[in-house]
Amino acid sequence: MNCFFLWVPFFLIRFGLMSCLDKSAVRRAAQFAPMRGPEKAAYWVYQLSTAALILHSPFLRVSRESTALFSLGLLCYAGGLVLCAASIISFSAPAASGVNTGGMYRYSRNPMYAAYFVCFLGMALLSRSAAFLVILALFQISCHWIILAEERWCVETFGAAYLDYMRTVRRYL
After folding, report:
1. What is the distance, to the nearest Å, from the Cα of residue 170 to the centroid of all Cα atoms in its chain?
2. What is the pTM of this model?
3. Which of 27, 37, 148, 162 gets the most CB atoms within 10 Å of its CB?
Protein backbone atom coordinates (compact mmCIF):
# COMPACT_ATOMS: atom_id res chain seq x y z
CA MET A 1 0.00 0.00 0.00
CA ASN A 2 1.19 3.50 -0.76
CA CYS A 3 2.02 5.51 2.38
CA PHE A 4 0.12 8.52 1.02
CA PHE A 5 -3.18 6.75 1.81
CA LEU A 6 -2.35 6.96 5.51
CA TRP A 7 -3.03 10.70 5.25
CA VAL A 8 -6.70 10.16 4.31
CA PRO A 9 -7.95 9.17 7.80
CA PHE A 10 -5.75 11.86 9.34
CA PHE A 11 -7.19 14.60 7.12
CA LEU A 12 -10.74 13.33 7.62
CA ILE A 13 -10.27 13.57 11.38
CA ARG A 14 -8.22 16.79 11.40
CA PHE A 15 -10.42 18.78 9.05
CA GLY A 16 -13.64 16.80 8.56
CA LEU A 17 -14.39 16.03 12.20
CA MET A 18 -13.41 19.50 13.35
CA SER A 19 -15.56 21.12 10.66
CA CYS A 20 -18.55 18.96 11.61
CA LEU A 21 -18.17 19.79 15.30
CA ASP A 22 -17.52 23.53 15.04
CA LYS A 23 -16.61 25.49 11.90
CA SER A 24 -15.05 28.26 13.99
CA ALA A 25 -12.67 25.66 15.47
CA VAL A 26 -11.12 25.18 12.02
CA ARG A 27 -10.31 28.90 11.88
CA ARG A 28 -8.98 28.90 15.45
CA ALA A 29 -6.76 25.88 14.76
CA ALA A 30 -5.33 27.52 11.63
CA GLN A 31 -4.47 30.73 13.48
CA PHE A 32 -0.88 31.00 14.70
CA ALA A 33 0.18 33.09 17.67
CA PRO A 34 2.42 36.09 16.94
CA MET A 35 5.98 34.87 16.47
CA ARG A 36 9.16 36.51 17.73
CA GLY A 37 12.82 35.93 16.90
CA PRO A 38 13.63 32.25 16.30
CA GLU A 39 9.92 31.38 16.40
CA LYS A 40 9.55 33.00 12.97
CA ALA A 41 12.12 30.60 11.51
CA ALA A 42 10.43 27.72 13.35
CA TYR A 43 7.13 28.66 11.71
CA TRP A 44 8.69 28.24 8.25
CA VAL A 45 10.41 24.99 9.25
CA TYR A 46 7.02 23.77 10.50
CA GLN A 47 5.29 24.67 7.23
CA LEU A 48 8.04 23.22 5.04
CA SER A 49 8.41 20.04 7.08
CA THR A 50 4.65 19.49 7.01
CA ALA A 51 4.69 19.85 3.22
CA ALA A 52 7.72 17.55 3.00
CA LEU A 53 6.01 14.85 5.08
CA ILE A 54 2.97 14.93 2.83
CA LEU A 55 4.87 15.22 -0.46
CA HIS A 56 7.40 12.51 0.45
CA SER A 57 4.77 9.93 1.41
CA PRO A 58 3.58 9.03 -2.16
CA PHE A 59 7.10 7.72 -2.78
CA LEU A 60 6.90 5.33 0.19
CA ARG A 61 5.27 1.96 0.59
CA VAL A 62 3.86 0.49 3.76
CA SER A 63 5.54 -2.82 4.43
CA ARG A 64 2.93 -5.37 5.52
CA GLU A 65 5.44 -7.86 6.87
CA SER A 66 4.29 -8.93 10.29
CA THR A 67 7.21 -7.68 12.36
CA ALA A 68 7.61 -5.88 15.65
CA LEU A 69 8.33 -2.68 13.68
CA PHE A 70 5.09 -3.05 11.72
CA SER A 71 3.11 -3.73 14.90
CA LEU A 72 4.66 -0.72 16.67
CA GLY A 73 4.02 1.47 13.62
CA LEU A 74 0.39 0.36 13.42
CA LEU A 75 -0.07 0.95 17.15
CA CYS A 76 1.44 4.46 16.93
CA TYR A 77 -0.54 5.36 13.81
CA ALA A 78 -3.89 4.12 15.17
CA GLY A 79 -3.20 5.56 18.62
CA GLY A 80 -2.26 8.90 17.06
CA LEU A 81 -5.53 8.97 15.12
CA VAL A 82 -7.52 8.22 18.28
CA LEU A 83 -5.63 10.90 20.23
CA CYS A 84 -6.15 13.33 17.36
CA ALA A 85 -9.91 12.70 17.30
CA ALA A 86 -10.16 13.04 21.09
CA SER A 87 -8.16 16.27 21.12
CA ILE A 88 -10.22 17.73 18.26
CA ILE A 89 -13.44 16.92 20.10
CA SER A 90 -12.06 18.75 23.15
CA PHE A 91 -10.71 21.67 21.08
CA SER A 92 -14.08 22.11 19.38
CA ALA A 93 -15.83 22.73 22.70
CA PRO A 94 -13.82 25.45 24.49
CA ALA A 95 -14.82 26.79 27.87
CA ALA A 96 -16.66 30.12 28.05
CA SER A 97 -13.48 31.69 29.48
CA GLY A 98 -11.59 30.71 26.32
CA VAL A 99 -9.12 28.54 28.21
CA ASN A 100 -9.81 24.97 27.17
CA THR A 101 -9.20 22.74 30.18
CA GLY A 102 -11.63 19.89 29.48
CA GLY A 103 -11.29 16.57 27.74
CA MET A 104 -7.75 15.87 26.52
CA TYR A 105 -6.70 19.33 27.70
CA ARG A 106 -6.90 18.05 31.29
CA TYR A 107 -3.84 15.91 30.56
CA SER A 108 -1.87 17.96 28.03
CA ARG A 109 -1.79 21.61 27.07
CA ASN A 110 -1.02 20.55 23.49
CA PRO A 111 -2.77 17.24 22.81
CA MET A 112 -3.20 17.89 19.07
CA TYR A 113 0.54 18.41 18.53
CA ALA A 114 1.26 15.28 20.60
CA ALA A 115 -1.28 13.32 18.55
CA TYR A 116 0.24 14.51 15.28
CA PHE A 117 3.67 13.34 16.40
CA VAL A 118 2.44 9.90 17.47
CA CYS A 119 0.47 9.46 14.23
CA PHE A 120 3.35 10.62 12.02
CA LEU A 121 5.80 8.44 13.94
CA GLY A 122 3.53 5.52 13.10
CA MET A 123 3.72 6.51 9.42
CA ALA A 124 7.52 6.61 9.60
CA LEU A 125 7.66 3.17 11.20
CA LEU A 126 5.10 1.67 8.80
CA SER A 127 6.99 2.99 5.79
CA ARG A 128 10.42 2.22 7.32
CA SER A 129 11.62 5.56 6.03
CA ALA A 130 14.62 7.18 7.68
CA ALA A 131 14.01 10.32 5.59
CA PHE A 132 10.43 10.57 6.88
CA LEU A 133 11.77 10.18 10.42
CA VAL A 134 14.33 12.99 9.92
CA ILE A 135 11.64 15.29 8.49
CA LEU A 136 9.41 14.37 11.44
CA ALA A 137 12.20 15.37 13.85
CA LEU A 138 12.41 18.79 12.17
CA PHE A 139 8.62 19.05 12.32
CA GLN A 140 8.56 18.25 16.04
CA ILE A 141 11.39 20.65 16.95
CA SER A 142 9.62 23.45 15.08
CA CYS A 143 6.34 22.55 16.82
CA HIS A 144 8.00 23.12 20.17
CA TRP A 145 8.90 26.71 19.19
CA ILE A 146 5.38 27.33 17.88
CA ILE A 147 3.97 25.99 21.15
CA LEU A 148 6.17 28.40 23.11
CA ALA A 149 4.73 31.29 21.07
CA GLU A 150 1.18 30.00 21.62
CA GLU A 151 1.73 29.70 25.36
CA ARG A 152 3.12 33.24 25.56
CA TRP A 153 0.05 34.49 23.67
CA CYS A 154 -2.26 32.55 25.99
CA VAL A 155 -0.59 34.06 29.07
CA GLU A 156 -0.92 37.55 27.56
CA THR A 157 -4.57 36.91 26.60
CA PHE A 158 -5.90 34.88 29.54
CA GLY A 159 -3.51 35.95 32.32
CA ALA A 160 -3.74 34.21 35.68
CA ALA A 161 -6.24 31.61 34.45
CA TYR A 162 -3.72 30.31 31.93
CA LEU A 163 -0.81 30.52 34.37
CA ASP A 164 -2.80 28.36 36.81
CA TYR A 165 -3.52 25.93 33.99
CA MET A 166 0.19 25.80 33.12
CA ARG A 167 1.03 24.93 36.72
CA THR A 168 -1.36 21.98 36.81
CA VAL A 169 -1.16 20.48 33.30
CA ARG A 170 1.95 19.35 31.43
CA ARG A 171 2.94 20.85 28.08
CA TYR A 172 2.91 17.47 26.32
CA LEU A 173 1.89 14.05 27.66
Report:
1. 16
2. 0.93
3. 162
